[in-house]
């Protein structure tokens, strides 16, 4: 049996026919990077390929001297024996799915993706394929959130309520992606600057350089901030920071404040985050259960490999059909060549 077109190796997903890796975990010769989060973009590779909107973020994360080539969404290019193209994943700025075609066989590796409206990045694009490698970060039926929420308005109302009671508002969001989405959602509503943690400054600059409209910001430790002096004279301000500052001395500088966390993990009372924060905003940069299933259906894939929290989604998919043919669903671990040999061969031909 021929090995998988995209195999799982100790260095990550590898396409031997094109001699490249997708989001490799170690240094390689050619790395296609789906997006700039640290668990997908790692140092040391000789050459990086990414969507052109992601170049600035990749250099900010990995160093300005890296060799990186930006590729527009939808442009087909050849690596070895295969044709490759990148398609929007809707996850963060420049995030991409990787489409790989060898002859009439088409595979798509999704990276991380979401379907929710997001003013800070391009919307998700469904890509037809034979085999789909999907994430499933929120791959259980418990995770299903409203698609019509005005997050900017909700956050601004929370901010205003706290300010009216003499409190600052401390909103936690990851420094790359989530923080910029929050600032984009707030742009039509915020009437004063948002104070942002130092770790958010550089990615925010990269977003602005790509023409993304964000709320006005001031750096928490910058010269215009009284926080830099070690004391806070502020009341009623909004501070945006990564959750890691919960364990630092920053909290002593903020005066009276209330906290909130913006994350899909705030869905459901059993979350380990509940009780840590005064408020939660269910804002995720990943697909929920409904959108995972919707996406798989739209790809038309008859074979699906699942990364992260795969159990529930695999069981569910095995009871579904695409075009009259039952879906074959497996853990992404089955993409290792020695395990892939056990999978019964099927006709993988999209065209």
Describe the 3D structure.
It contains seven helices and 21 strands. The strands form four sheets. It has a seven-stranded mixed sheet with strand order 7-8-9-10-11-18-21, covered by helices on one side. Strands 1-2-3-4-5-6 form a six-stranded mixed sheet, covered by helices on one side. Strand 1 (7-9) and strand 2 form a beta hairpin. The protein folds into two domains: 7-143 and 286-340, Metallo-beta-lactamase, Chain A (4-Layer Sandwich), CATH 3.60.15; 151-281, Rossmann fold. 19% of the residues lie in helices and 25% in strands. The chain has helices at 55-62, 151-164, 178-186, 198-209, 289-299, 310-317, 337-340; strands at residues 7-9, 12-15, 20-22, 30-32, 47-51, 68-71, 77-79, 82-88, 96-102, 105-109, 131-135, 168-172, 194-196, 217-219, 238-241, 257-262, 279-281, 303-307, 321-322, 325-326, 328-331. Helix 2 packs across helix 3. The chain is an alpha/beta fold and 351 residues long.
Q: Quick check: average pLDDT?
A: 91
Tell me how many strands there are: 21
Stretches where pLDDT is under 50 for at least 5 consecutive residues are none
Largest sheet: number of strands, sense, barrel closure: 7 strands, mixed
From the coordinates shown, what is the CATH architecture of the largest domain?
A: 4-Layer Sandwich
Helix fraction by DSSP (H/I, runs of at least 4): 10-25%
Query: What's the CATH H-level superfamily name of the largest domain?
Result: Ribonuclease Z/Hydroxyacylglutathione hydrolase-like
The domain count comes to: 2
Helix and strand string, N-terminal first? EEEEEHEEEEEEHEHEHEEEEHEHEEEH
What share of the residues does DSSP label as strand, in percent? 15-25%
């Amino acid at each position: 049996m021929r090995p998988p077109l995209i195999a799982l190796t100790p260095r990550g997903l590898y396409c031997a026919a094109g001699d490249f890796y997708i989001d490799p975990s170690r240094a390689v010769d050619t790395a296609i990077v789906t997006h700039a989060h640290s668990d997908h973009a790692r140092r040391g590779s000789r050459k990086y390929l990414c969507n052109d909107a992601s170049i600035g973020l990749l250099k900010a994360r990995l160093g300005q001297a890296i060799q990186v080539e930006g590729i527009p969404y939808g442009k087909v290019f050849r690596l070895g024996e295969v044709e490759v193209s990148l398609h929007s994943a809707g996850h963060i700025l420049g995030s991409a799915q990787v489409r790989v075609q060898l002859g009439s066989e088409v595979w798509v590796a999704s990276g991380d993706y979401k379907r929710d409206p997001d003013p800070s990045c391009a919307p998700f694009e469904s890509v037809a394929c034979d085999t789909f490698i999907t994430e499933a970060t929120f791959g259980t039926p418990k995770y299903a959130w409203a698609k019509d929420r005005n997050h900017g308005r909700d956050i601004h109302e929370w901010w205003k309520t706290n300010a009216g009671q003499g409190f600052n508002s401390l909103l936690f969001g990851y420094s790359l992606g989530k923080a910029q989405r929050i600032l984009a959602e707030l742009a039509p509503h915020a009437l004063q600057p948002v104070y942002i943690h130092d770790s958010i400054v550089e990615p925010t600059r990269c977003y602005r350089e790509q023409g993304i409209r964000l709320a006005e910001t001031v750096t928490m430790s910058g010269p215009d901030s009284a926080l830099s002096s070690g004391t806070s004279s502020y009341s009623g301000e909004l501070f945006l920071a990564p959750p890691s500052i919960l364990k630092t001395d920053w909290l002593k500088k903020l005066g009276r404040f209330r906290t909130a966390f913006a994350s899909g993990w705030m869905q459901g009372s059993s979350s380990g985050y509940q009780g840590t924060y005064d408020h939660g905003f269910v804002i995720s940069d990943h697909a929920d259960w409904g959108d995972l299933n919707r996406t798989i259906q739209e790809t038309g894939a008859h074979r699906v490999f699942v990364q992260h929290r795969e159990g529930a989604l695999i069981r569910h998919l095995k009871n579904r059909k695409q075009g009259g043919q039952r879906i074959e669903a497996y853990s992404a671990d089955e993409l290792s060549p020695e395990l892939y040999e056990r999978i019964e061969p099927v006709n993988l031909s999209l065209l």
